[in-house]
Amino acid sequence: MTLFELERNADFDQLITILEESSNPDIRKRSAEILGSLESETGERNTPREEVIDVLVAAAKDDEDEGVRAGAIDALDQYGQDALEQFIGEISGHDIDDVAQWKKAEILAKGLNADLPELRMAAATGLGRIGEDNVVNALVDRLSDPDPRVRMRVSRALARIGSTECVPALARRLHEDQYDVRIEVAYALADIGTENALRELVDVANDDDEVLRRIAVDALGRLGSVEAVEILATALSDDSDVVRRTAMFSLVQLLSQAPSGASHQVREKIVGELEEANEREAVQPLIEILDRSTETAQRRNAAWLLGRIADEEYVRDAQDALIETLGDDDEMTSKFAATSLALLAGDGLEQRLLELVESDRDEEMRVKALFVLGKIGGDRSRKKLSSFVERTDSDRLRKRGFSALSKLGGVGMPSGDIP
C-alpha cells in the first residue's frame, strides 16, 4: 500500500511502523509529515494521540537522518505546544509542563543557543507558538544560525508573532540566504503583511533572478490584499513560464486569503486585471489548475474566474475544462463550473451539453449540464429535453430536466437553484 493510500485511510499503525523501521530516510520523513497532517483524526481512529506524539518525539531525537528529525519536529508542531514541549523537555532535561508562559518563553529562548540544532529548531517553533513579543530579538539573532533548518523555523516563528520589528532582518535574509530559507522568509514577510514587508516582496518580484521572482510572487498570494493583485497581474507577463504560472496560482490563492471585509474588492480587482491581461497568460493557467490541482479552494476559484475572463480564442478550451469539472467531488466547485459555463454560451456549447445529458457519464455532470441548458438553451434544447424527460429512468435527471424546460418556456416544474 502506498503512502498516499495510508494517508487517505489514516492508517496510523502502518505509518508508525514505516517511520520506525523503513531503511529509506525519504520515506521515513514523509511518514512523519503524514502523521503530522493527520493530527485531527487521532481520536476518531482509536489511535491514542499520546502514542503518536511519543513516536514522533523518538524520531525527532534519535533518527539518524537530519531530514527525518526535522520532519518529525514539524509534525510535533501540528500536535500543538504540549507535543513540542514534551520533545524539548526530554532532550533538554527541563520539565516545562506547568511553567508560566513567560517562563516557558525564557527557557525556550535559552534553547535557541543549544548545541543540538534540533533543540534550536524546536525552541524556535515553540516560541512562535507562545507568541511573546519579548523574544523577537532572540529569534532575530538566530536568523544567522549556521543550520538552515533553524533559520527556516525562526522565520516561521517570527511570522507567527507578526512583529514589524523583524522585517529589516528578514529582508536581509531574503537577499542573502539559500533558496529554501528564502522561501520561508518570503512567507514570513507576507504573513506579517505590513507596508514595509510588502515593499520588500515587491522589490524581489522584480529581481533579475528568476527563482527569487517566483518565490516573491508565490508569497504574495498569502497576503489577501488588493495591493498584491497589481504586482501579480504584472508577473503574468514575466519572461519565465514558471513565474507566470506561479503568479496565476497566487492570484487564485488571493481569492481564498482575502479578509471577509475586503473579499469583494479583491475579487473585482482580480477579475479586472485578468480581463486586461493577455488571454493565454490568464486562461491557460486557470485551466491547468482545474486539470491538475488537488486544492479545493484553488479549484473553486479557478472555475469561478474562467467564466468571467475567457473570451474568443480560448473560450472553447475554457468550456471543455468547465464541462469536465461539472462532476467534481466538491459540490461548490461543480456549482461554480456550471454558473461559469452559463456565462460562456456559444461556440457549440449547447449541442455538447445536450450530448452530455444523453450520455452515460456521471449523473452529477448531467444534472449540472441540465442546469446550464436551462440558462442558455433554445428551441433545440426544448425539443431534446422534452423527449429526454420522458425516457430517462433517473428521477433526479427527470426533475432537473423539467426545471430546465420551465426556464426555457416549456412545460415543466418550477425552476430553482443549482441542485
Automatic annotation (TrEMBL):
> Which superkingdom is the protein from?
Archaea
Which Pfam families does this one have? HEAT_2 (PF13646), HEAT_PBS (PF03130)
Can you provide one Gene Ontology molecular function annotated for this UniProt record?
oxidoreductase activity
What this protein is called in its record is: HEAT repeat domain-containing protein
Q: Which species?
A: Natrarchaeobius chitinivorans
